[in-house]
Amino acid sequence: MRLSTKGRYAVTAMLDLALNGVDGPVTLAEISENQGISLSYLEQLFASLRAKELVRGVRGPGGGYYLGRSADDISIANIICAVDEWVEFTRCGGRKNCSGGERCLTHSLWDDLSSEIFDFLTKISIGDLIRRGEHKKADKAAHLSVVNDEGSRAA
Amino acid sequence: MRLSTKGRYAVTAMLDLALNGVDGPVTLAEISENQGISLSYLEQLFASLRAKELVRGVRGPGGGYYLGRSADDISIANIICAVDEWVEFTRCGGRKNCSGGERCLTHSLWDDLSSEIFDFLTKISIGDLIRRGEHKKADKAAHLSVVNDEGSRAA
DNA sequence: TTATTACCAAGTAAATTAGTAGGAAATGTG
DNA sequence: CACATTTCCTACTAATTTACTTGGTAATAA
To answer: Domain tally for chain A?
Structure first.
């Protein structure tokens, strides 16, 4: 697994798209403005996202991007894999003395961890994140001024 | 959170250290050999790991590195944070029109996801990974030739 | 004394990230 | 139709990060 800043940009952009795309498509110019990402870099990212059918583009005036499918059917792993090319590491073939022996155990362990992280991110959808955000807002509205050390992060 | 190849190297090296360091310290030369990482790059990584007291170096002939504390007290998040400098993103201050309004929700959502991934990796220790590996070995020995689609990954 | 090892610093090649520039192809609107 | 808007596409580039190289110094066991 590989969670780089590139993947972060992509997830953030997709989140923006899901939030602002409820009535009509969202232009990359808007996302660029909102998130402080250059338009052309967004174009690159969205080319990858479009290739994996995570977004759908509409050209011309009034155009922009839609989510390619329901927000509940788009996982964080989907997004990150789309832009980050998912290099499979620990392909022990070709490595030193990795065949079968003690040596390979380390690789195998990392491989297990890696796929566990992947599973974790597969289970979180854009829809989940949004609902979670709504809950938090509702909670804040309900018992206002009740501040614990977790809630007061975003200034 | 940021899970780069650099963090991968560090986790792999720490795993190697934990596995081979049961009787006596492990030299970076050995890890370099085992994992195919250049000695000097390992030195850089271990400088960071040592600064966070995740490893302990012993100089001179017969020297090498020990884990800084019990394998159960070293989480994957610990390791990644040590080498990856943990840049805190989505510090919305200074950003566009991020103060309070709609705009910030996206950042906040990503921030939540980020800390969730962090929590996840905090809960997995080097010790956990090793025990998991041993279980897997035991399972293989017990009901041999029973292969499901998950177990047959590492060739 | 010597070999071995951690430890340290400066520099560098390669890869990746992020952004620029300059378009072409659709498409809604006047 | 003309035109503005927007996706879509390619090539180039600056900045940053990754991974490695080189050339040491300091500690220490034999």
So the answer is: 1
